[in-house]
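Q: Study each token:
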Amino acid sequence: MKNTLKKILFLLLAVFVIAQFFGPEKNDGDLVTLEPFLAETNPPEDVKLILKETCFDCHSSVTRYPWYSKITPVNYWLNGHIEHGKEELDFSKWESYSAKKKAHKLEEVAELVEKKEMPLESYTWVHKEAKLSDAQIDAVVAWVNKVKFKYSLEPRPE
């Protein structure tokens, strides 16, 4: 019985070690992909910093990976979060969104930030700097409302 347990544990350890050589594709895009979004929405410096520290890791093609992202299976879990985040909103693809979609996405940003549903608790647990204060939430919401107003003035196709 003891020998069987040792063999099973050794096999599990071997599988774990071998798995470290494999992982999902990294989300290592270029910061240039964020320039259209930043140029078009022109966030103030404080909001730009908030976006960088709380949004872009999961909602763009530019992710700052923590040390533990090199460990399988954690890297697959992180990749799942990033892929889901980009499906909901990808700031790197901002140019491809219509004015209506941009306004709607910004509305969702304000709503989720106000409700403290974003950034995710699982993200802020590890990234303490991403936990937003009430003042930061107010700054993001004010910026969103200003930019949304701009999109509401743009002509819509009939």
In short: Residues 25-153 form one domain.
